[in-house]
């Protein structure tokens, strides 16, 4: 996500590295590269030009403190302007009404059906709601079947009627059905087309007028770049939607849509899809996205993802095992599963300040732990709980069973042993105090408390 843009902006800011002061010449040179980077990312020309003009005006009017460099100043101003460009602050969806109704709009293939499922899943798991998905694509039976499959995968009820060809009737009946069953909110998935056409726009206008949704979302494929912005403009003129959903931001996208849509249609981006799984959906925070674009990481989102997977009872159990130096391979395997639930590993690394740049050329996917898991799963239950039992003959058997070799097995066991010792030492305050004293004796200067 935004990897190419981040690289090009980083190169642009290097123009100012080593410069003693901000001048009109060096700022103009840097911002020329910034504008080129934005245009390469498929940001609309006027949006890119207005952005760099605002940055230039603020940079030349700012006082550079002794404690920061001109490049740091420009990065700060660019960060502030990126946040403003993407809306300034996070905007929630409206869930007013009895029941609240959320209407989906967008072109065919934009990801409306998948997003409808992701949103239902988010509202169910994080807000303890009982959503109802409604299939209003009366043209493609496969679309109705797809929504039923999505609903079944997340345990959410789906309302549909393959006999009816009137989306207004289906949506109206679905709302009455939800009211009777106490289901909320109602998420209406409408038909898309391969291109904007009059029949499609008339139909969705009629649906919106009939059901009076509390929230209308425009779902757009971020990979379509500038076309996404143009389509958003057309839809907004007809149905006046409340917010934008950008899907497929995890793909080979240049990110221009995320930076242009807000300024063109003056509607907030509310969600971004970051993968195919039902939990691969993020609320859109302009400040966090700006930080990531400029390579500053996104620690807040990383912590939030970790907290979602945090189990207090399990944490206390592990804490006791670590204190007794009893942390074993079964515990390690459990922790790997928790990390995998947090999302794509490379994406997680990108949330750590400075690490994203280091990882940009590293091929890291969801199978990053595959070899480690295979080795651990090839151990017996007894061996996982008692690593000291892993003799040479057992290690050879584990290597054969996991499709690895003895060197890889030995390496993992050695690294695990070192990690376990370090965790045990860190869990003991007395050990920590002794370690700090030893460092001081060796000449290390410890920061005062």
Shape call: flat
Continuous helix count? 21
State the strand order across the main sheet: 3-2-4-1-5-6-7-8
Mean pLDDT: 77
Total domain units: 3
CATH class of the largest domain: Alpha Beta
Helix content: 55-70%
Could you characterize the architecture of this molecule?
This protein has 449 residues and is an alpha/beta fold. 57% of the residues lie in helices and 8% in strands. An 8-stranded mixed beta sheet has the order 3-2-4-1-5-6-7-8, with helices on both faces. Mean pLDDT is 77; it is low at 442-449.
List the helices and strands and how they pair.
Elements: H1 3-13, H2 24-40, H3 45-60, H4 70-85, E1 101-105, H5 112-127, E2 132-136, H6 141-154, E3 157-159, H7 167-181, E4 186-190, H8 198-211, E5 215-221, H9 226-239, E6 243-247, H10 256-265, E7 269-273, E8 281-283, H11 286-293, H12 299-308, H13 312-323, H14 329-341, H15 345-350, H16 355-358, H17 370-377, H18 381-385, H19 392-402, H20 406-427, H21 429-441
Parallel strand pairs: 1-4, 1-5, 2-3, 2-4, 5-6, 6-7
Antiparallel strand pairs: 7-8
Task: Kindly list the characteristics that best describe this protein.
single chain; 449 residues; alpha/beta; Four Helix Bundle (Hemerythrin (Met), subunit A); Rossmann fold; 434 Repressor (Amino-terminal Domain); eight-stranded mixed beta sheet; 21 helices; disordered C terminus
């Amino acid at each position: 996500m935004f990897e190419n843009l981040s690289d090009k902006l980083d190169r642009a800011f290097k123009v100012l590295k080593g410069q003693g002061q901000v001048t009109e010449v060096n700022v103009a040179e840097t911002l020329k590269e910034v504008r080129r980077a934005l245009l390469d990312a498929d940001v609309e020309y006027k949006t890119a030009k207005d952005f760099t003009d605002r940055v230039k005006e603020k940079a030349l009017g700012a006082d550079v403190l002794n404690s920061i460099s001109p490049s740091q100043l420009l990065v700060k101003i660019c960060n502030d302007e990126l946040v403003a460009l993407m809306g300034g602050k996070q905007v929630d969806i409206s869930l007013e009404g009895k029941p609240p109704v959320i209407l989906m709009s967008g072109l065919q293939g934009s990801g409306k059906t998948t997003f409808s499922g992701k949103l239902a899943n988010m509202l169910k798991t994080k807000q303890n709601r009982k959503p109802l998905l409604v299939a209003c694509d009366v043209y493609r039976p496969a679309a109705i079947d797809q929504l039923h499959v999505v609903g079944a995968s997340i345990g959410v009820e789906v309302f549909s009627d393959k006999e009816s060809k009137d989306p207004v009737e289906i949506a109206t009946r679905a709302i009455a059905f939800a009211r009777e069953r106490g289901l909320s909110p109602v998420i209406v998935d409408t038909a898309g087309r391969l291109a904007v056409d009059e029949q499609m726009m008339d139909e969705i206008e009629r649906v919106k007028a009939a059901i009076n949704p509390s929230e209308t979302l425009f779902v757009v494929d971020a990979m379509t770049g500038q076309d996404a912005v143009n389509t958003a403009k057309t839809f907004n003129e007809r149905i006046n939607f409340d917010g934008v959903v950008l899907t497929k931001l995890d793909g080979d996208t240049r990110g221009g849509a995320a930076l242009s849509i807000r300024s063109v249609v003056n509607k907030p981006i509310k969600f971004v899809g970051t993968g195919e799984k039902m939990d691969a959906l993020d609320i859109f925070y302009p400040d966090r996205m700006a930080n990531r674009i400029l390579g500053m990481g996104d620690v807040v989102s990383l912590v939030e993802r970790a907290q979602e997977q945090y189990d207090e009872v399990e944490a206390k159990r592990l804490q006791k095992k670590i204190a007794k130096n009893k942390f074993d391979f079964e515990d390690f395997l459990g922790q790997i599963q928790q990390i995998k639930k947090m999302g794509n590993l490379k994406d997680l690394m990108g949330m750590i300040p400075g690490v994203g740049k280091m990882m940009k050329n590293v091929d890291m996917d969801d199978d990053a732990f595959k070899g480690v898991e295979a080795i651990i799963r090839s151990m017996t239950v007894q061996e996982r709980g008692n690593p000291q039992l892993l003799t040479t003959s057992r290690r050879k058997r584990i290597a054969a069973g996991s499709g690895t070799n003895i060197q890889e097995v030995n390496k993992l066991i050695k690294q695990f042993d070192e990690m376990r010792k370090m965790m045990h030492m860190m869990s003991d305050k007395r050990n920590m105090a002794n370690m700090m004293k030893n460092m001081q004796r060796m000449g290390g200067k410890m920061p005062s408390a």
